[in-house]
Amino acid sequence: MVSGRQTLAEIDQAVSEARGQVAAAEAQIETIRQQLLEGSKAHAKDFKDLARIRLDQLGSAEMIQHLDQAERQAKALLDRRQGALADLERQLATAETAAQAMESERAA
């Protein structure tokens, strides 16, 4: 038969082992938390570096030249569109005048 002292010693030993396992698990959790924190910091730094590169590209002379060229092309297209619209309006006015003249001839 097992004595009460032996049972108590076994319980104390089991509790001590459990506390050791809890302490080991907490240490692992802390290590993993630190690794995640470092990973997050590295990720944030990568995004910051990417943003800096992007801003550098936007501010570069080459980018400004491309934007200026695109603006000139857009203006040229709008000017051509305006000219084509004016031509169509003249043709429409001529056609309306001719139609009115034909209507007058037919009515006479």
Q: What does the average pLDDT come to?
A: 87
Rg: 42 Å
Task: Compute the separation of the termini in Å.
Answer: 137 Å
Spans of 5+ residues with little confidence (pLDDT < 50)?
Answer: none
**% residues in beta strands:** under 5%
Q: What share of residues is helical? A: over 70%
List the helices and strands and how they pair.
Blueprint: H1 4-59, H2 61-107
Task: Provide structural commentary.
This protein is mainly α and 108 residues long. 95% of the residues lie in helices and 0% in strands. It contains two helices and no strands. The protein has helices spanning 4-59, 61-107. The radius of gyration is 42 Å and the shape is rod-shaped. The chain starts with a helix and ends with a helix. The model has no long low-confidence stretch (mean pLDDT 87).
Summarize the structure.
With 108 residues, this protein is mainly alpha-helical. It has helices at 4-59, 61-107.
Q: How would you describe this structure in keywords?
A:
mainly alpha, 108 residues
